[in-house]
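Troubleshooting: if your tokenizer reports a length mismatch, compare your output against this known-good record of 385 residues.
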Amino acid sequence: MTKGFMQFSLAAAGSVAVLSASLTFAADVKLPDTLTWTAYDLGSSGYNQSVAIGKAVMDAYGTTLRVVPAKNDVSRLAPVRRGQVQFANSGSDVFYAVEGVFGYADPDWGPQPLRMVSSAGSDNCLAMGTAADANIRTPADLKGKRVAWVRGAPSLQTNVTAFMAFGGVTWNDVEKVEMPGFGPAWQALMNGQVDAMSAFTTGGIVEQAAASPRGLFWLPLPFDDKAGWDRLNKVAPHFNKTKAIQGAAGVSKEHPLPCAGFPYPILVAYPDQKADLVYNMTKAISAQVPNFAKAEPTAGGWADDHQTMEWVLPFHEGAIKFWQEKGRWNAEAQARTDTLLKRQQILADAWADLKKKGDAAVKAEWMKVRAAALTKAGMEPVWTE
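Known-good structure output:
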């Protein structure tokens, strides 16, 4: 045997071994031929990451993962609730959904028993983006400016409200400009209809804004401004201090941005989703991170070591099984999920009792009934009105 033929044989054998291992692993993940997720609008970081994950899942397992963009929070969850879609790749709106507040305080909704599957914790963060030519340099400078308000999107509304609160600004101090969706709100910033809108620092649409004639400037949230953070957390208690080192408009390791953080995107399902499907979906995402992160830089946050195991949503039993296998689940995570499940049950019981009185009673009394039920159980209501 010649040296060249031996090298070829060894290389071929190595390729076969890698292919064999790949096929074995692919066979180990059992997904249906077609799956569907809902996600944020076209151009958002959440949508781009969902598409990148879908491509990797198709390449590895032959499963078509359809991504349906939704303009607001309610439209993202509605088809999942109806059982038409298996998963929602969402943002902080899931916090409001499980709490039954804002748009979910409606008689047609109420507190939702959502379960966490997986999430991304990336090097970007949530911030208030402003048109650079509007000369807004601090949250306090938002006074008198045109600020976007996305209809039917309590998470986006709360994000913006919280950033304004950091600077002591309320909706009475600004010109509220109503928008039909996240994408249109950012288009409005670019074309001069609004001056400020919240977003994650990465994503196609904020890159467009940075390259537009108006430019883009992110409002910093200094960590030493205790009063500002206290005002922000009163509106959005699920926000944490973080520094972005990745983003449009010059956000980098050399120029970090002090801002707000929480997992994003957050893949969720309802508790009646089959545990086996949730387990395999979680497994597929974990396995494919190296592949889809190449297509969408911020998607690297889906890696196992970036997972947030103790947030504001309990985990789905199928996801827990996978995270146990990966060694990412511990007693603290289980205790947190148990506490959150208890909280969800308290809210569900309070909602069911009030619904018996009719929709008018729900509209008039829910927030007070909700706060009373949580307080009685020794839990913080967070919102009381």
